[in-house]
User: Fold this.
Amino acid sequence: MRAEMISVGTELLLGQIVDTNAPYLSTVLSALGIDVYYRITVGDNAARLAETLRTALSRADLVITIGGLGPTQDDLTKETIAKVLGEQMVMDPESEKVIRAFFERRGLQIAQSNLKQALKPETGMPMPNSVGTAPGVIVEKAGKIVIALPGPPGELMPMVEKSVIPYLSQKALGAPTVLVSRILKVVGIGESAAEEKVKDLLSNRNPTIAPYAGAGEVQFRISAKASNREEALELIAGLEQKARERLGEFIYGVDEETLESVVVHALIERKLTLVLAESCTGGLIAHRVTNVPGSSNTFLAGIVSYSNRAKSDFLDVPEDLIYTHGAVSPEVAEAMANGAAARTGADITLGVTGIAGPGGGSAEKPVGLVYIGLRTPDGTSATKNVFGGSRIEIKLRAAQAALNLVRTWLLRDA
Amino acid sequence: MRAEMISVGTELLLGQIVDTNAPYLSTVLSALGIDVYYRITVGDNAARLAETLRTALSRADLVITIGGLGPTQDDLTKETIAKVLGEQMVMDPESEKVIRAFFERRGLQIAQSNLKQALKPETGMPMPNSVGTAPGVIVEKAGKIVIALPGPPGELMPMVEKSVIPYLSQKALGAPTVLVSRILKVVGIGESAAEEKVKDLLSNRNPTIAPYAGAGEVQFRISAKASNREEALELIAGLEQKARERLGEFIYGVDEETLESVVVHALIERKLTLVLAESCTGGLIAHRVTNVPGSSNTFLAGIVSYSNRAKSDFLDVPEDLIYTHGAVSPEVAEAMANGAAARTGADITLGVTGIAGPGGGSAEKPVGLVYIGLRTPDGTSATKNVFGGSRIEIKLRAAQAALNLVRTWLLRDA
Assistant:
């Protein structure tokens, strides 16, 4: 099966945003054994989109469009697909109901343009959007398949995982072949070093293993083809075991797990409570922890002590400690963690203090210097880190390191 | 002048790397007033690259290829360009000298494949590579221009800045034309409603105005072509004024500004201090505020009061208030803001409490219900919101609404 991908959006052509959907979708198609020969980006222009669709349909079995499903005049992907395939646009009652309910729940007036999103080419099969109001659609016509997906990655990815992959697995792999993937997530080691550890496995043919560098972590996707799911899982298990022998505790989770979800679930399971005292990460760790549903079962409170006074008022960090060692010091990091524990009685507390930049650095204490204090029932200790990158990257890496400290303590203590 | 861009590389089609070159080049071309109608990604395959080049040359005046200039067998961009344009490949003595010197300096043996990089289509003008060994090339033929650039961004960008921009400025702007853009950022109104307000302006030809829906906000890009920058800015100013008359205070900023940067800078300018009391947003507002360099000049502290006890211990919210009205209530939102102010003496405080879901909702208090308490020198008030979407989107929208409350209070008070 040959595929082409068409990203639709003038903002893409103008370079205003980087297309991360297309690479994601490419890895999905590649894992399904579907070859992508061309990927085209075209603006919000009906004539050029139609020409692109016609060319793609003349060369490929499967054409996937990304974007242009919104409510505005600019959004014309579904209409153009219908036109090129010689179909009428019809209202999909189920999608209409979902969109009306979406607006009613929020007490908002619905505009005619919002209902436009419920239209689909007449023979199209709508795909529900679990996050936004724009449903996707699959049209099969004259031996070709056209799939239209929404542009926002937060809407596209769940639709691909829930609707597109099951649909294409069956189409692409035909009767007796399934493709199953599993992602190993790795933290606390760089991409090159992680790759070095599994170097000889990278040339494996079935299952395959391929690295992908994420934000502050590395992911390895293991994919296996087999005649049924059980066989594929067995193949994966074999390679996963080898990878685990090499990467050990650097692997924090698999598939949809995040570092924060792994930490939160481990804390809940162990009936331990967490309190955060954040200075340079500015609330990012609390934000990530509270992104995990159910985190209120372990996370009691976070203190973003951005001023010295907040460190004394809310965390009882002695003023003379700050005066003697500086706010960015192992002593203050430990005192923040200890103060948070004393105030709340939490089992595990973190104290994070550092220089996120761009200003505030010195030769002795450069931008990127971050001390992380961790207090557990075993006691309190501080680790020193120097992170590179922008202000936002330093915050991200510090948050990643702090969460990883909790994770590794939980492993050692298990 | 119409352009197409061709990114060459199987690793791009497989999704192994994200193409950041093409967006960068798009902004460069857009600034030069060169319209990009199509951007195509194709693998390391001579036949498909040749077909793509022929199609692009039939539609565009300028075709820019990215990648495929390396020494390996896979790298066949220059040869394919020569073939499509009916040219021979010849050795460029200057490039050969540079490559030989590069290897000598490093004490490395030079391979025949490395010298291949010094080959160019016979009428091509080589562009020096200040970083690597692969020179770029410009070929002018039959009224068309083909420019071949190396794939690594660290090699492409200096070549674009030093060679391509000067060359194209002269070609494209010849009859002097520049294109200037400005982005208006809008919050507190939905995409459809915002677009409705400027509907008649969307058909404007020069300058143009086009909407783009971001996360919890809408952006309008105004772009003008003119013979010089001053004229373009005047055109933009005219349309911007009309858009501002329609959108008024929904416009929070322009270009690189973020809602948090606008709020932080306005607070600093007015010498006002900020303290946050967050429950359902879980630290996200503090995280966004502290993403702004210099935010420590206004932001003193944040309390993530994720448990009822944290609300009483750190914010002095009376326990019976929580018992009587529930933690998610306008009374508690106000009490959180008041407690944060009493504890810290901050001028402006926010108290945010709600149900981010997926659990914890009821008929009376559904998932997405969020109360935001704002305390200012004028007094304390709470607003009720019901947001849709996932847990993470509800947090994002609540943070957006809370920051927007501070912004609009600052406007009214100005």
The mean pLDDT of chain A is 91. Chain A has three domains: 2-173, 178-254, 259-413.
